[in-house]
Amino acid sequence: MATDTEPTELKWSAQFALAHNTRSTQLPGDKILLPPSALEQLLAAAPIITFDSDRPHFTSFDPFNPYTHAAERQARAQFQDRHQQLPHPLTFRLVNPDNGRVVHAGIREFSAEEGQIVLSSFLRDALGIEASSVESSRGASPNGPSGSDVVMDNGEAVNGAASTKITVHAKQLPKGTFVKLRPLEAGYDPEDWKSLLEEHLRSNFTTLTNGEVLVVYGGRAAGGKREEFRFLVDGFKPEGDGICVVDTDLEVDIEALNEEQARETMKRIVAKRQRAPGTAEGSSVGGEIDVFKGRNGQVLDGEYVDFELQSWDRSQGLEITLSDVDDEEEVDLFVSPYSAQQRVRPRDSEHVFADTSSSYPKRIRIQPTNAELDGADAIWISVRAYPSESVSSVPKRFHLKVSVFDPRAKATNGEGSVEKIIHDDDEVQCKNCKQYVPKGSLFLHENFCLRNNIVCPQGCGQIFQKRSPALQNHWHCPQDTFTGNTPLSLQKHNAIYHTLQTCSSCGIDFPSLPTLAHHKTTTCPGKLILCRFCHLQVPQEGDPTEPPNPELLLSGLTPHELADGGRTTECHLCNKIVRFRDMETHLRHHDLERLSRPAPRMCRNVNCGRTQDGASKTGDTRAGTRKGQGPGNEIGLCSVCFGPLYVSLHDPEGKALKRRIERRYLSQLLTGCGKSWCRNEFCRAGRKNLGQEDRSVPTREAIPMVKPFLEGMDGRGYVTPLHFCVDEASQKRRTLAEMLAAEKGIEGKGGYGIEWCVAALEAENGDLEKARAWLKSWAPQRSEA
C-alpha cells in the first residue's frame, strides 16, 4: 500500500545532437530514441515511492505510549519498500533552440548513440528541421559520413556545418478528454479518414501538442500519389500545451476552418456520392467472377474495380482477358493471389501479375505450376483506369473474362502464336503495307497505299495514315522496346517505368513501379502475411538491405514467423516441449515412425480383445513386453488367456499343454461357462446366447471338433485360431475392433487392419472415440501399409 503523499514531479532535462540516422524515417508518429545514459539519469531523478507491507502493525502498538510509537516507526522504516519509479507513459517536451519551436513526444527506445537523439519525420517537421541541415555533412561523400566530416562532440563539424541541437525536458502531460481538429483542405469525407485517424492515433502517438499538424495517410490517389489528410490541432481539454492520448477516452471533434471550406467540403462530398460505385456515373461494384461467364463493367479515372475468383480447376492454367476498351483509353489489369503470403488487393504499386501495355485485348496467363498459386484461396483481379492530367468524369467501359486452358496444349493463334496463313496463287503482297491483294488490283492498291499510308520509320512495323493524329503522336521509348500512339500512353509509360519510386514501408528507392511492386510482394518488411503461428494478419518484418537469413531460406518462414515460432508448446502426441517453428518437422518424424512401427500381434484367441505384447497410449505396440509383462508363451496367446493353462512343468514338445487345451475345449462344449455375455461358438452358454440349440456336445463329437486347433503347441508356429471364453470387457473390445476394421473410409481404400483396431481399443480401455484418435495418430492405414 503506497503512502498518502503524492510523489513529486519528475524533473530532468538534457541537450542532444540530432542524429542523421536512416532509422529516423522508420520511427512512427511522435516517437523518439534516446541514449541508454538518459535512462540512467531519469531513474536517478525519479521520485522515491514508498510501499508498506500489508501487515497493519509490526509491534504491540499503543498510540498513547510514546515508546511503542517510536518502536513502530523504527519497525516500519526497516521493512518499508522504497524504490524509484518512472511515470507511465514517459513523455517529453522537445525544444529546437534555433527557432524556438516546441513539441511533445513519447519514448520508443533507449537505444540511440551516446549524446544523440533520433526523431521521427513527424517531429522533424514539427520542430522545423530541414533535411539539408541534418544531412549537410553527408553531402561530401556519396557513401555517407566519412572520417573527414563526422560531427564532433562540441557541435562543430569538420566541414564547417554545425549539428542541430535538441533540448529535451521530462514533462508529464494530463490525460486528454477532448481534442478539436480542423482539416487544412476542403473535401475531406469522414468515411475516408475517420477510421484511419483513430488507428493512426492509437498506433503512432503518445501525445498531442496544440498547434501541430497531424498527417494521416490513406490509399493511393488518382494521380498515383499516396493520399494525405492534414489536420490542425486547435485546442483540447484539459487546456494546456499538450495532452497524453494513452489509456484515455478521447473525444474528437472535427470542425472546418471557415464557412467557405465547409460549403466546399459538402459540395465535393455530394459530387463524390453521385459517382459512388454502382451508380450510372461511377465505377462498377465488382464482386465475384467465375470461369463460365465474363463481366462487363466501367471504371472512373484513378479508381479500381475489384473482382474475386473463388474456385477453378487447379490442374488447369488460368487466362484473364481484358477487352472492349477504346484504343485511346488506358485501362490496366492487375492480378494477385489471395493466400497466407499475399493479403492485399492488387494495386499499381503492389501486385504479382500485371499488364500495363497500351494494346488490347490484354491477357495474363498463369500456369498451374506457378509458385505464387501455392496455398491460394482465391485470385484477386483489379481493373484500373489510368488518370490523365485532366481527370475525366466519364467512366471507361471494359469486359473482363476468366477462362482455363490446358497447360500441355500448344497456344492457339489468339493466345500469341503466329499461325501461318495460306494465300491463293493470284495474291501478292504490297511492299508498303505488307497486305496481300489480288494481282489484278496491285497497281491501283500500291498507288493508293503509297499516297496515303506510311510505315513507322523507327521499325516497329505499324501502318499509319499520313497526316493522321496517330502518326503524329506515335512514340518509341529510347530506353526500352515500348511503343504507343497517344500522349497519355507516353505519360503512363514514363510514370510507370522511368519514374523513381519510394517504398512507403522501408524508404528504399526503386527505378520503376514494377520493381517496387515486386519488392512489396516479396521482401518488404511492411508486406502483410497471415502468421501460421499467431494466426494474425501482421507485417512480415525483416531488413531487405541485409543478406537473407539461411534459416529463413531453409524453413520458408518470414522474419516475423521465425521470431514468433520461437515460442514453445507441448506436442499432443508425445507431450514433449517443441518450438512452434519446429513442430511441423517434429510431426513428420512422428508420421515416419507411424509408418515404420511394427504391427501389433493379436491374441490367438478369436474372442479376446487384447494383443500379445500390450499397447500403450503413446503408440507403442510392444509396451507390455518392454516392461517384462509379455505373453510368456510361444503359442500366440496373451498373458490373460494363457494364465489358466500355465503349469510349472517341463514340456518341450507341448504334449501336456495340448491335453490342457483339449480339456478346456471339452469343458466349454459339455458344460459351458455359464456367462450371459458369452458369444463363444465353442461354448454351450455362448451357443445358447447366440440363439443356437442349447445342448451339450458328446465327447465323441467334441474331440474331432477340437483336434484341428491343437497344432503349434511346441512353439514352432501355428495357423489355426483358438476359442476360449473371455471376460465381458475383452469380448466387447474385440467386437468393436471388428466394427472399426470394417470401416474403409469414403473412397473404400482406407481403414485400418483388425490388429491395429484391437491395439487401439486395448490402449484406450475400450473408448471408441479415443480409439479412433489413437488410430489416426499412431496406426498406418491399409493404403499406406
UniProtKB/TrEMBL annotation:
The biological process GO terms on file are: ERAD pathway; ubiquitin-dependent protein catabolic process
Give the superkingdom in one word: Eukaryota
Outline the extent of the Ubiquitin fusion degradation protein UFD1 N-terminal subdomain domain.
84-133, 175-256
Q: Which portions of the sequence form the region Disordered?
A: 133-154, 607-630
- Sorted UniProt keywords: Ubl conjugation pathway
**GO molecular function terms listed in the Swiss-Prot or TrEMBL record:** polyubiquitin modification-dependent protein binding
Compositional bias (Polar residues): 133-146
Q: Where is the Ubiquitin-protein ligase E3A N-terminal zinc-binding domain?
A: 663-691
Query: DUF7590 domain: which residues?
Result: 282-403
Q: Name one GO cellular component term.
A: VCP-NPL4-UFD1 AAA ATPase complex
What Gene3D superfamilies does the record tag this protein with?
Answer: 3.10.330.10, Ubiquitin fusion degradation protein UFD1, N-terminal domain, Ubiquitin-protein ligase E3A, N-terminal zinc-binding domain (AZUL), Zinc/RING finger domain, C3HC4 (zinc finger)
Q: Mind telling me which InterPro entries this protein's record contains? A: AZUL, AZUL_sf, DUF7590, Ufd1-like, Ufd1-like_Nn, UFD1_N1, UFD1_N2, Znf_RING/FYVE/PHD
Is Transferase set as a keyword in this record?
no
Q: Does the keyword Transcription apply?
A: no
Q: Which family does it belong to?
A: Belongs to the UFD1 family.
The protein in question is named Ubiquitin-protein ligase E3A N-terminal zinc-binding domain-containing protein
